[in-house]
Design a protein that fits this description.
The complex is a heterodimer of chains A (380) and B (261). Chain A has 380 residues and is of the alpha+beta class. In chain A, 53% of the residues lie in helices and 16% in strands. Classes of the chains: A alpha+beta (380), B alpha/beta (261).
Chain lengths: 380, 261
């Protein structure tokens, strides 16, 4: 296994999580994918085991786990069910804006129920016409007295409609471009907040992806995160911080696929011997495991940087996400190839893994945007 | 109520293929990964459920074993057990079920246990003799194959699994209850449980602490002699039924014969 700096308690937690993932999560994965329903039982399981509490500091009801432990938890869950792992990823994604920019009151109010898993979090940045280009955002917020009035909509929001706490980004001053974006904590039951279409997706099917609609939505001014105009910075800092989680999800999916490819190729007999005896298959497996190990090193490396308190890890976060998600696509694709007809059938998990892997190249910043981040740092 | 659970650390049944040492005729326990017996996890769950339903109760895990058994006990503590007692002593090596029962009974007597839960059998040796031995040493009633355990006043009431159904049986407490495998949902340690486990009371006792003479336990005190060990005969091929209109009946008869219907 790759280098790791886990504490003894965290090591034990990951070992227990490995058992839970195998015994409780794995048997649900296919059904979650088929039914495309949010797995509340998995959410409960993660809450009960303090897994959802991992990204939160102890003073807010969390367990203050290291970034490495969080990533390893996401990896272990993703090996069996990427949708279940995403519950942890998004709990972190939706909460980091509050952790980074929230006041003490905001943290005290919102973080404990999120750490306890009673509430889910969501992160609302993307819009139909504003993906990589955040400045094209159409959602606006206008302050009237002690209230901001939000109008517009957010698209492709994970946990949309399920999350009690939504970190939402809106324009308070269009003239200023990205510097005119502000961040708000929007509760599900604020007047004027509603949920639009729920998307039908290629993968991570049990995760609910929905449109958030703001129609004169009233957000108390005390729910502004940071100051007006801080929104873009908060959004980007959050994604830098959570992208390693997506990298870990991709890594876990790839590892799950490799596990399957290895076990299948040892069992599948053709021409009187296991296909694993053929060099053609062995070379594929060797390349798959090597790529996975390289991805793992990048993922654990960025965890190390974060846990050490380094500030400039953006490039490493981008590298880990890009590389691990590309590896996830390659490895799941090769797993299907090794499994032949069986790999292509919905009865087996390989094709689900490929569908789940695809999103990791897209969300929390496309891999093309990640490459820009890396290149800009290189050429500066 | 003071509830006690007797637990054991064993070679991991999920990863280790049990090996017997032809010279000592004992199970090889070195160089293999050791875990808390999965059967004991179920028994611990039974104890914790009972504690939480009754309130004002405490669960203590008791084990006899080498120092490495501490790890299995930490797992029990992380699962929610309140405290742990491990008896460890070089003179205990080679103990048979009699010696084990003698040692565990000595701890339980000292502790004035109200209720003692054991798994029906361990997942390594499978002798199933220790619970009975403890009850005998303590002069307590023993309730076996329990799927459910309740305390009603001064009585333990147990739903006992039989080959054809259930029996409800009861006895006064203190009593020894052995839990049928798979009767309770496993409890996985939570992170808070793992972190808290280190702060819970953990007692280590030696034979001297218990006032047991080393000649009564270990190799010296063993009354059990393993005469021979051998390989299990290879399994014969299964029976293949050809359906000529009577297969359903044949399958039903087969299942009936093994009391599966």
């Amino acid at each position: 296994m790759a280098v790791s700096h886990l504490s003894e308690d965290e090591q034990t937690l990951i070992e227990v999580l490995r058992e839970i993932a195998l015994e409780k999560v794995a048997p649900r994965a296919a059904e979650i994918d088929h039914s495309a329903e949010f797995p509340w039982d998995m959410k409960e399981l993660l809450a009960q085991q303090d897994i959802l509490a991992m990204p939160f500091p102890t003073e807010y009801g969390g367990i203050g786990a290291s970034e490495l432990a969080i990533l390893m938890a996401i990896e272990e869950l993703s090996r069996h069910c990427a949708t279940t792992a995403l519950i942890l990823c998004v709990q972190q994604l939706g909460s980091i804006p509050i952790l980074l920019a929230g006041t003490e009151e905001q943290k005290r109010k919102y973080l404990p129920p999120l750490a306890g898993g009673e509430w889910l979090a969501a992160y609302g940045l993307t819009e139909s016409a504003s993906g990589s280009d955040a400045a094209a955002m159409q959602t606006v917020a206008v302050r009237i007295g002690d209230t901001y009035i939000l109008n517009g909509s957010k698209r492709f929001i994970t946990n949309g409609g399920l999350a009690q706490v939504n970190s939402v980004f809106a324009m308070t001053d269009r003239e200023k471009g990205t510097h005119g974006i502000s961040a708000f904590i929007v509760e599900k039951d604020f007047p004027g907040f509603s949920v639009g279409r729920v998307e039908d997706k290629m993968g991570i099917k049990g995760s609910q992806t929905a449109e958030l609609i703001f129609t004169d939505c009233e957000v108390p001014a005390e729910n502004l995160l940071g100051r007006e105009g801080d929104g873009f910075k908060i959004a980007m800092m959050t994604l830098d911080r959570t992208r390693p989680g997506i990298a870990a999800q991709a890594l876990g999916i790839a590892q799950g696929a490799l596990d399957l490819a290895v076990s299948y190729s040892k069992q599948r007999i053709q021409f009187g011997r296991p296909i694993a005896d053929n060099e053609g298959i062995q070379f594929m497996l060797a390349d798959m495991v090597t790529k996975i190990e390289a991805a793992r090193l990048l993922v654990y490396n960025v965890a190390e940087l974060i846990d050490r308190g380094e500030k400039n890890f953006s490039k490493y976060s981008a590298m880990a996400k890009t590389f691990a998600s590309d590896v996830a696509m390659e490895v799941t694709n090769d797993t299907i190839q090794i499994m032949g007809g069986y790999g292509y059938m919905k009865e087996y998990p390989a094709e689900r893994m490929l569908r789940d892997a695809k999103i990791t190249q897209i969300y929390e910043g496309t891999n093309q945007i990640q490459r820009l981040v890396v290149a800009r740092d290189l050429l500066k | 109520m003071k509830i006690y659970v007797c637990i054991k650390q064993i070679p991991d049944p999920n990863t280790v293929v049990s090996q017997l040492d032809p010279n000592t005729k004992r199970l090889v326990r070195s160089g293999v990964s050791l875990v808390l017996d999965p059967g004991d996890e179920v028994t611990i769950a039974a104890a914790i459920n009972l504690r939480d339903t009754m309130g004002n109760s405490e669960v203590t895990a008791v084990s006899m074993g080498p120092a490495s058994a501490q790890e299995a006990m930490r797992r029990a503590l992380a699962m929610g057990v309140d405290r742990a007692i491990l008896v460890t002593d070089p003179a205990l090596a080679g103990s048979d079920t009699l010696g084990t029962a003698r040692v565990l009974a000595a701890v339980l007597k000292r502790e004035n246990a109200d209720l003692i839960l054991c798994s029906t059998e361990s997942t390594d040796g499978y002798t199933g003799m220790v619970p009975g031995g403890i009850a005998e040493f303590l002069g307590l009633p023993q309730l076996t194959f329990a799927r459910e355990v309740k305390i009603e006043g001064q009585k333990a009431v147990v739903k006992r699994v039989t080959p054809t159904g259930y029996l409800i049986v009861e006895s006064p407490v203190p009593a020894v209850v052995s839990i049928a495998s798979g009767s309770f949902e496993a409890i996985y340690p939570t992170m808070k449980g793992i972190m808290g486990a280190k702060k819970k009371p953990f007692t280590q006792l030696s034979l001297a602490d218990l006032g047991i003479d080393p000649s009564q336990v270990g190799e010296a005190g063993a009354r059990e002699r393993v005469l021979t060990i051998g390989k299990v005969a290879a399994r014969a091929a299964g029976q293949v039924l050809k359906d000529e209109g009577d297969a359903a009946q044949a399958i039903a008869d087969f299942l009936q014969r093994y009391q599966l219907l």
